[in-house]
Fold each of these.
Amino acid sequence: MAAANMKAVKLRIKSVQNTMQITKAMQLVAASKLRKAKQKADQSKPYFETLHDTLTEIARSNTEFQSRYTKEGRNDKWLYIVIAGDRGLAGGYNANLFKFMEEETKGRDYTVLPIGKKSVDYFHHKKTPILTESFAEAASIGASDCFEISRLICEEYAKGTFGHISMCFTDFVSMMTQTPGVTSMLPLSDFNDADGNRLAEENHGKEPEKETAAEEKMNGARNLILYEPDSETVFDAIVPDYLAGLLYSSINVSIASELAARRTAMEAATDNAEEMIDTLSLNYNRARQASITQEITEIVAGAEGA
């Protein structure tokens, strides 16, 4: 009986060791890819930040500025771009995102544009309307795909198909923390009325601050800028590029978050496997010692009987 138990424990130890090799390898691969993903995410941010500044300058240079992308939508239908992972084994990365999405969309009429295989599978299971599945694999999404998605959502918004367009993704806070969140894409409320109304409210009742010589020079230069054919046309032409940059950066951040979550999950799995091996080894040694003790007892009993 002891021999049978020892064999079962030994097989169990071997099985856990094989599993630990897999989890350890996945942990190292995720850690290696994570460094590249973080670097890629950091490098993509300046692009859309520069475009954001450009759009702000265009909007503020025209006191009567109006754009179809800054106007409120004509209906209450929402489009959500949902960025999830292509694979599992990443802890609660995908589950937390979908749980957040359920809370965000409660009571809303919405359609999704899923990015990531897990996102496609989830919304198929929920029977949620899907705009397109052309971008199902997050790992293969490049800058050109982001421009294509941006043009698509801008066309749909301009046609009035959707009154609001938002993006749901997981933000990389730290190696241990990744937080799901949502950001509005259209309408562009940040540029509405060139921020004039908001600035006026903030400065209401305050003494106007004197401009420095550098600020006066900058404002003078800004007033000399001419846009052809006009500022609104230039603004509308830049918006798809701006949204593409925002989308590309968010996808890179989401991929970094997924890799960080997978690294943490695989590290925990590896630690648990090591702990399990230690416990099983202790049980194996106990069973082996019990078997040896039993054999000695039988030999001694046989010798005394003789």
Note: Confidence is low (pLDDT under 50) at residues 193-206.
Amino acid sequence: MKNFILLCITIVSVFSFGSYAQKAKVAAADKKYDNYAYIDAIKTYERVADKGYKSVDLFQKLGNSYYFNSELDKAAKWYGELFAMTSDLEPEYYYRYAQSLKSIGQNDKANDMLEKFHQKAGNDNRAKLFESSKNYLDIIKANSGRYKVEDAGVNSKYSDYGSAFYGNKLVFASSRDTGSLGQQKHKWTNQYFTNLYVTELGDKMTPGKIDKFSRTINSRFHESTPVFTKDGKTMYFTRNNFLDGKKGKDSKRITLIKIYKASLENEQWGKCN
């Protein structure tokens, strides 16, 4: 009898220790998640989930981490686990799950989620848009084939986005700069921080050689989404809050995005402000 009791105590102790260890790992991943280090958080969350640990908070954060990185097929998997546990969720999760389901072709289920999103968040403009255009797939099909989508000739395997025309040139953001000394990776995406690049366009809009846009504009952190005034002498763009070698941080010590302005002086882009 004593041996049986001892065995039971040992089993309970092992189970308790294992549960505590899993919760400790989740807590460590939560810190990474709160600091927008989604890639690192995913690694820990998935290891814990694969060992059978389940919670609403875990599945929310796993789904979000993939959703915020545009890996919608993986987001759909974890949002599916989330909705299997509970439907008592904020409206935003219905919307994110619907968008993720669309990415894997589950349109009927996505529409069902959007219907519920509309019921829960009727004043949301996205809900109103869905309610007024429920046959959006038919509209898309009716307009398909009018244009042929091709590789622009500037695409890389890294993140390329935020393009703008500047005279006969194309300026865009990319995280392709992997060779610069001291270049850092962004923990949100596990890719390098984006810089602005430029390419001259030929007669048929064919891009030529791709170069970095400007040393006075590009920094150690993100630059993206440039726009130019009609005369081409003023440029607005987004960048992490970094100016004159100093990082600005919010109350949580996070460096967020700001809009910067630069002017063209003597054919060179001047200092940002």
Note: The longest strand covers residues 257-265.
